[in-house]
Design brief:
- The two termini are 32 Å apart.
- This protein has 16 helices and 14 strands.
- It has 2 domains: 310 residues, TIM Barrel, CATH 3.20.20.70; 52 residues, no CATH class.
- Helix 2 packs across helix 11 and helix 3 runs parallel beside helix 4.
- The strands form 3 sheets. Strands 7-8-6-5-4-3-2-1-9 form a 9-stranded mixed beta sheet, with helices on both faces. It has a 3-stranded antiparallel beta sheet with strand order 10-11-12. The chain has a two-stranded antiparallel ribbon with strand order 13-14.
- The longest helix has 18 residues.
- A hairpin with a 2-residue loop joins strand 7 and strand 8.
- By secondary structure, it is an alpha/beta fold.
- The chain is globular, with a radius of gyration of 22 Å.
């Protein structure tokens, strides 16, 4: 698994820089901390934007003007087996060792929830209800549904949940039952994302996934019967996977009728079992043309089935079916990450709150809208800062020990400069179907737009703007395949 980033030392009490809370635009009253997230959602967006699903303004998806939204990520680092391609911060029972307990994990995570509430209050941030919660892993549903519910209750008690808050858990198809899904829904979960990866047995075997693909329609039905929205996650580019295999997986997903699909190209990270198999010649990775053909097939079939792309690797039936938690990352909102190895981010007080872009508005659009990231007051070194990102220690044993001792589990942090924040804003904003307002770009980036349009990487009409919609950088299908290259030119 990857090492944590290099960074500055984290204060032992987890305190954030004073400039994070200085003159922060006002908050709003929090919702009832004992109320559950509603399963009701705003009216679906029309999904009519020709570039895909553009999340609509209005309802629970929008923060009041001037207030940055706040989300919580909960990392559950447990898996029954370690898949050969996986380099996430996860542990099987045999890997945990002494001093770390899956049984006690909910209590440990709740200690960090308490710490987070204190740290954010001490720095002077206004109270904000939580707009989205995401339990990831690992396999969160290896914990009993009651433990996941207790952690969600702790988050609700610390900050409250916005009306209509999105609460997601990841799950393996073999880690849930109808009763466990019903228990999660009754606790306030609104959405489940199943790690399907493939519908083809030999592909799953190469990935070392343990579930039976025939179970996928069952778990989708169980989740829907419980009142949960459902997403299916796929991986393409597994060694030995043919284009016909990939088509089978896509057609299987479409047949379930789910309203959200994620499809990610397999990346074989150094240090994984699969990387060793590739190095020894036991497995052969596909070439870039194969990966591109599979992405194009995914977009073709999913679009034909009524799911539009809203981010390079994500498709949704309507704006309300998009994953709002991940959109908050891509739009540069604030979040706290609970758990071993989890990352967190809070913008400087002077950074404007992202707004949601639509085809009929010109007042923002997350990373794609508004103005160039503002700088907060200077840090101790005299340099202006745009935000702070920090991360926890990786091993569950060290994580638990730090919290039990009354301290922060933080391992390090970085204080982002305006230039670093600008690069991230462009990199993330361009990935969205709503695009990136050209007004955000610096002069060299705006100058590069015409050439990118001429080469078919950016949408021409979007770059010109129309009516009330401002000019934006929106990737074409070819541009999505070369998104990194587009970002390099826009930020050169």
């Amino acid at each position: 698994m990857p090492a944590l980033p290099d960074g500055l030392p984290m204060p032992g009490d987890g305190a954030l820089p004073a400039w994070v809370g200085t003159a922060r635009p006002g908050g709003t009253e929090r919702s009832d901390p004992h109320g559950h997230a509603s399963h009701a959602t705003p009216a679906p967006g029309d999904g009519g934007d020709p570039r895909g699903v553009v999340p609509a303004a209005g309802g629970a998806q929008d923060a009041p003007r001037g207030r940055r939204r706040f989300g919580v990520y909960v990392h559950v680092p447990f898996c029954s087996v370690r898949c050969g391609y996986c380099d996430f911060n996860t542990y099987t029972a045999a890997e945990l060792g002494g001093g770390a307990s899956q049984v006690a994990y909910a209590d440990t995570a709740l200690r960090e929830v308490g710490l987070a509430g204190k740290v954010l209050a001490d720095v002077g941030l206004p109270e904000r209800s939580v707009s989205t919660v995401f339990f990831g892993g690992g396999t969160p549903t290896m914990l009993p549904a009651g433990d996941l519910a207790r952690i969600l209750d702790g988050i609700r008690g610390a900050w409250g949940l916005e009306p209509g808050a999105e609460v997601t858990t990841e799950a393996n198809p073999d880690s849930v039952t109808p009763s466990s899904l019903e228990r999660l829904a009754s606790a306030g979960f609104t959405r489940v994302s199943f790690g399907m990866q493939s519908a083809v047995p030999h592909v799953l075997a190469t990935l070392e996934r343990t579930h039976d693909p025939a179970r996928i329609p069952d778990v989708v039905r169980w989740a829907r019967d419980a009142g949960l929205r459902v997403s299916l996650d796929l991986i393409y580019g597994t060694p030995g996977e043919s284009l016909a295999d990939w088509r089978t997986s896509l057609e299987t997903v479409i047949a379930t009728g789910v309203d959200h699909v994620s499809a990610y190209a397999l990346v074989v990270e150094p240090g994984t079992k699969m990387a060793a198999q590739v190095r020894r010649g036991q497995l052969t990775l596909p070439d870039e043309d194969d990966q591109a053909a599979k992405y194009e097939l995914a977009d073709e079939l999913l679009t034909a089935a009524g799911l539009g792309w809203y981010e390079v690797s994500n498709w949704a039936r309507t704006a309300d079916d998009a994953c709002r938690h991940n959109l908050a990352y891509w739009r540069g909102n604030d979040w706290w990450g609970i758990g071993p190895g989890a990352h967190s981010y809070v913008a400087a007080a002077a950074t404007p709150a992202p707004a949601v872009a639509t085809s009929a508005t010109s007042d923002g659009g997350g990373p794609g809208g508004g103005v160039v990231p503002a700088a907060g007051p200077p840090d101790d070194d005299g340099e202006a800062r745009a935000g702070v990102r920090w991360w926890n220690v990786k091993h569950p044993r060290r994580y638990a020990a730090a919290l039990e001792a009354g301290g922060s589990p933080g391992a390090g942090r970085e204080l982002l400069t305006p230039d670093e924040a600008y690069l991230e804003r462009v990199m993330l904003g361009v990935r969205l179907a709503e695009g990136l307002e050209l007004a955000v770009l610096r002069p060299a980036g705006r100058h590069a737009v015409a050439g990118l349009v001429a080469r078919g990487l950016l949408d021409g009409p979007a770059a010109l703007g129309a009516g009330e919609r401002p000019a934006r950088a929106v990737l074409t299908l070819r541009g999505r395949l070369l998104a990194d290259a587009v970002v390099r030119e826009l930020t050169a």
